[in-house]
Amino acid sequence: MANIKSAKKRILVTAKKTLRNKIIKSRTKTAVKGVLSAASTNDKAQAQTALVAAIRAIDKAATKGIMHKNTASRKKSRLTKMVNKIGA
Fold it and tell me: What contacts 11, CB < 8 A, 6 or more positions away?
């Protein structure tokens, strides 16, 4: 355990930020799974609504620095391709 006051504060701040990052990552993964499950049932309307939610979650993760912007862009692109392929 840290003895210095600033080190103790850093431990608390790091724990808080780690929890925030974990929550946002979890929400993003859940939203992506929603798109995947809707796509697997070939329900285009449900997949599109889930896609909007997933893109929003991915964008929030990217803006907060939890996910790299190129990773976010790649994930959004692949999900959009998958949803667009349903109707074809």
Answer: 2
Residue 30 within a domain: no
For residue 79, is it within any domain? yes
* Tally of domains in the chain: 1
C-alpha triplet 61, 67, 73: angle, nearest 5°: 90
Q: What is the pLDDT along the chain (88 residues), one digit of tens a residue?
A: 789 999 999 999 999 999 999 999 999 999 999 999 999 999 999 999 999 999 999 999 999 999 999 999 999 999 999 999 997 6
The two counts, helices (H) then strands (E), for the chain are: 3, 0
Range of the domain at 57: 35-88
Please tell me the pTM assigned to this model. Answer: 0.86
